[in-house]
Design a protein that fits this description.
62% of the residues lie in helices and 15% in strands. It has 216 residues and is an alpha+beta fold.
């Protein structure tokens, strides 16, 4: 009788171990999947943060084209180098320099906080548009394809693909008071010149009419 009880106890222990193994493996897989999702969400949040920082940096220093990357201190030399009428005549040059700053700033910023594995090329698209009344709008899109810790589990579950593409777009606005002043001054100058041309045209018409009257 005792031998039968011992044998039954051993059988139950084996069943418990088998059942525990059957439960432990899916639970462990689920925990790893949740951990992998946390890295996925972190990478997405990190890219969003980088896009916002790049857009804010470009908008904040839009008129200071010679400032270093990530520099916040504006010196007198930076101010004196700000060109007048830049939004009228040098807009393309200013936009090109700011786009270059964005392309240089983003990789440096991503390198500080990215947990991506085997990262691909970081692409930065910076578009700057003006409203015509002194406001400048900045749109920055940052994208990079990379793996992350335990990403293979999400690939296996069909949640992600091999080499997840992370992309984020951010917007910022800056008010360029000097650009607005230049625009107003240029418009006023053009209006005065137009008034002068109109006055000359009116005078010519009056003289022409007077001559025609004398001929009659």
């Amino acid at each position: 009788m005792r031998k039968k009880l011992v044998a039954a106890a051993k059988d139950q222990q084996g069943e418990i171990m088998l059942e525990a193994t059957m439960i432990f493996v899916p639970v462990l897989l689920l925990l790893f999947a949740l951990l992998s999702l946390s890295f996925l969400f972190y990478q997405e949040a990190m890219m969003t943060s980088v896009a916002n920082e790049v857009a804010s940096d470009v908008a904040r220093n839009y008129k200071f084209t010679d400032m270093e990357i990530g520099e916040d201190t504006i010196t007198l030399d930076d101010v004196t180098k700000v060109a007048m009428f830049r939004t009228t005549f040098g807009k393309k040059d200013v936009e090109q320099k700011q786009a270059e700053r964005a392309e240089a700033y983003a990789p440096w910023r991503v390198g500080l906080s990215s947990l991506g594995l085997n990262p691909g090329e970081l692409k930065v698209d910076c578009n700057i548009t003006g409203s015509g009344i002194g406001r400048t709008y900045v749109q920055v899109t940052v994208s990079q394809q990379s793996d992350f810790f335990l990403s293979g589990i999400l690939d296996m579950l069909g949640i992600t693909e091999n080499g997840q593409m992370f992309s984020s777009t951010a917007y910022a606005e800056c008010v360029d008071l000097m650009g607005y002043t230049s625009l107003v001054n240029f418009t006023a100058y053009g209006s005065k010149q137009l008034e002068a041309f109109q006055a000359i045209g009116n005078l010519y018409s009056s003289v022409k009419d007077f001559i025609q009257v004398l001929r009659k």
